[in-house]
From TrEMBL:
Ranges of compositional bias, category Polar residues: 317-346
Gene source species: Halorubrum trueperi
Protein name from the UniProt record: ATP-binding cassette domain-containing protein
The keyword Transmembrane helix is annotated on this UniProt entry: no
Family statement: Belongs to the ABC transporter superfamily. Drug exporter-1 (DrugE1) (TC 3.A.1.105) family.
UniProt-recorded Gene Ontology molecular function terms: ATP binding
Keywords, ordered alphabetically: ATP-binding, Cell membrane, Membrane, Nucleotide-binding, Translocase, Transport
Length: 346
């Protein structure tokens, strides 16, 4: 049985369609990532799956239970770690978990056994009697993740599990999340806007933008779908003339431009740098710098939505920009985006 099955789930707030007719399945035992900028609709989707929000349309099951018809069974099947920390800092680690265990109606024996296992799993056995207020940020996060597992759910939801943690602690936390998945055998659904987190942790990733899913696949397959390296030229000058020249080169798999840069997808990027520089030169465009990027999930996001996660968060722009040529007003700057694939202009 699939861990989660989603069919046409939709939620609107006034004029905003936060989640727009989504359908997909999370397999049993998977670490599944929802990757997208703030405001993409990830939390709204999770809140519906954990029965905190009622969908306007569509259905979903968690562990086979319907999220609107069987809410108690759904809640017993899942653990959740919210984006905002929710620990009592004046209590010890153990007292925090014991409180949660009582909420789930666990008896003393179950409580003690499960707490022992959870503290072991998240590496806090020695600190279980310390006040949570004295824990580091990473320890608190681990305690919360462990708490989500205490009642032995089959699915664990982690909403931005490492937001606010430094890079080192973030990596440590990934290791603990992997352990949960492998040792406790729990399916994990996490939301993130960190590219590296999605790449490192997830078996499959859904690219979420503007309430919609642009693609779902393993990180490797998503990257392979771009079919090459991206050579980025930072430029001064009329990029339209560069586009005409790129269109005439059969080895160009695709490209994306704005007024300050040209990003060209090619195989073996290093072998094409000289030609690309010449091509820009012929078009009368000055080059300020050249970079080669191996595809990552950021470039996948860019190719699917016409913008990066960072840009999307900076502008709060919810409009997709990949329908052929599009012009978008971004503050005082008009950006021109044009995406071409090997099949032609999209
Ligand atoms: N309770 C609400 N009332 C009105 N609008 C909401 C509400 N909750 C979410 N939204 C809107 O729905 C859209 C999706 O928000 P959501 O929080 O699901 O995104 P997100 O991808 O989880 O981002 P974040 O990580 O910042 O929470 C946003 O435009 C948001 O402003």
């Amino acid at each position: 049985m699939a861990a989660i099955e989603i069919d046409g789930l939709t939620k609107t707030f006034g004029d905003t369609t936060a989640v727009d007719d989504l359908s997909f399945t999370v397999e049993d035992g998977e670490v599944f990532g929802l990757l997208g900028p703030n405001g993409a609709g990830k939390s709204t989707l999770i809140n519906m799956l954990v029965t905190l929000l009622r969908p306007d349309a569509g259905t979903a099951t968690v562990n086979g239970y319907d999220i609107t018809e069987e809410t108690a069974a759904v809640r017993n099947s899942l653990g959740i770690v919210f984006q905002e920390p929710a620990l009592d800092e004046d209590l010890t680690g153990e007292e925090n978990l014991a409180f949660h265990a009582r909420l789930y109606g666990m008896n003393k024996r179950e409580r003690e056994t499960n707490m022992g296992e959870v503290f072991e799993l998240v590496g806090l056995t020695d600190e279980r009697n310390g006040l949570v207020g004295t824990y580091s940020g990473g320890m608190k996060r681990r305690l919360e993740i462990g708490r989500g597992l205490l009642h032995e759910p089959t699915v664990l939801f982690l909403d931005e599990p490492t937001v606010g943690l430094d890079a080192r602690t973030r990596r440590d936390t990934w290791e603990y999340i992997q352990r949960m998945n492998e040792e406790a055998g729990v399916s994990i659904v996490l939301t993130t806007h960190y590219i590296e987190e999605a790449e490192q942790l997830c078996d499959r990733v859904a690219i979420v933008d503007d309430g919609d899913i642009a693609a779902i696949d393993s990180p490797a397959a998503l990257k392979d779908s771009l079919g090459g390296d991206v050579v980025s030229l930072a430029v001064d000058g009329p990029v339209a003339d560069v586009c005409d020249r790129l269109d005439a080169r059969p080895w160009v798999i695709g490209y994306e431009t704005n007024e300050a840069s040209v990003n060209v997808t090619v195989e073996r990027g290093e072998a094409r740098i000289a030609e690309l520089v010449r091509l820009a030169d012929d078009a009368g465009v000055a080059i300020r710098s050249v970079d080669i990027h191996r595809p990552n999930l950021e470039t996948v996001f860019l190719s699917l939505t016409g913008t990066t996660i960072e840009e999307r968060e900076a502008t709060g722009d919810s409009e997709s920009g990949t329908d052929g040529e599009s012009e978008r007003q971004t503050g005082s700057m008009t950006r021109r985006t044009r995406t071409v694939t090997s099949e032609g202009t999209e």
